[in-house]
């Protein structure tokens, strides 16, 4: 079992397993629980502390598992409960914690509650667990309000008897009504189900959703109402004050299980509003997405870091840093792709892992995977169709992980064709190709994570900005680590100190452009 330190998560490195794309154990071209279990040695060598596994519950896969038909079972594509228990036991035996996704805001349309709601009449108790409303206009043919779905199109779908139901995401993801007592009671039951099995915590999906303002008023019309961005106080779909009561209920359950935690996916950019989710009786952690949305620019990154630290100041929470996830373009690609994007991604890894608090690594970050442009016919994300084929969606950052070999599927699966096709040319990015190469991205991550575990320089919550050449970032951790990142257009001299790690060769005493270095002052 992992150590019993109850606050283990405060400086942990979590590894996000996007289950469909991590490792395929049964040869159907889709990742699964058995695949994760077989690949635990990679995660142990990498040196992460905990896993977050994306949803593996029964689902029609309209949103690849974020449309949950039964939150207390396993989708056969991914395995069964015994496979989950076996994975959990092996992970714990190796000292790895395991956290799982909780998707409270909505269910699948195939959930038994929604099927019962559709079969029942308007005004029935079956409909009261969701947000069914009559439409506007003389014959009710207009949606009840002007809210758009973040996947495109209206957030309302009409059913044959004329009523409409709310879905902030796809029509196959009806929103639950959190004022209904059974909804929260069921969420608590789901939490206990997984906590009793031994999970170490949850990642809470759309943790700023759930509560809706009473009367469901129109929102301010906005240009971009798309996926997972914060549109501020005029957007009534998210961050309603009532959501905090839901978080207090979630926390009360967690507190019955010492040492377990929850991190919220909270797309709220105002520091003070985000901090409210981190009050002592709410979430232990909230993703801070400011690094993920910042440009490769010293000013932008410094602002991102300062706001993230300001958010947690005055809360019990540490900061929680994310560079990439399954919803956004990968950072190699955001930073320019190719050699430049990869150099910057190496530097960004040292920046992220030097910051005080928690870090989330998305599967493939440690290999330097870029996004992959897929042909139209390969696209699977509901965003593609819902946007009228104007937005390509998130498939590009969800390509399966390459493990070994020279051609697709690079050891991911026993078959060549995978749920999203893997590109030619990824043989140099496989785990096997990088494992013994000191200059690889994988070696950089392993070394950085080893230093995080073993060096006192990387301890302490304090961060002090240091004077730095124009276009560079430099800070000192209270444990003594100095991190310098060169985002300028010229080489800069290396500061004084013992060299711990660099994203590139610094043997001539300078830090090149788009590179980062760790020193002990
Ligand atoms: C998840 C997405 C998902 C959405 C709806 C998000 O925040 O990260 O992948 O599509 O929630 O559940």
**Which distinct ligands sit in these coordinates?**
beta-D-glucopyranose
Look at the structure and give the mean pLDDT.
Answer: 96
Which regions are unreliable across 5 or more consecutive residues at pLDDT < 50?
A: none
Instruction: State the CATH topology of the largest domain.
Output: TIM Barrel
Tally of structural domains: 2
CATH superfamily annotation of the largest domain: Glycosidases
Please tell me the CATH architecture of the largest domain by its name: Alpha-Beta Barrel
Radius of gyration: 23 Å
Describe the structure.
This protein is α/β, with parallel strands linked by helices. The protein has two domains: 8-106 and 181-447, Glycosidases (TIM Barrel), CATH 3.20.20.80; 462-520, Sandwich (Immunoglobulin-like). The chain contains 15 helices and 18 strands. The strands form four sheets. An eight-stranded parallel beta sheet has the order 9-8-7-3-2-1-11-10. Strands 12-13-14-18-16 form a five-stranded antiparallel beta sheet, with helices on one face. The chain has a three-stranded antiparallel beta sheet with strand order 4-6-5, with no helix packed on it. A hairpin with a 3-residue loop joins strand 13 (472-477) and strand 14 (481-486). Helix 6 (181-197) packs parallel to helix 7 and helix 12 (338-354) runs parallel beside helix 15. It is globular. The model has no long low-confidence stretch (mean pLDDT 96). The chain binds beta-D-glucopyranose.
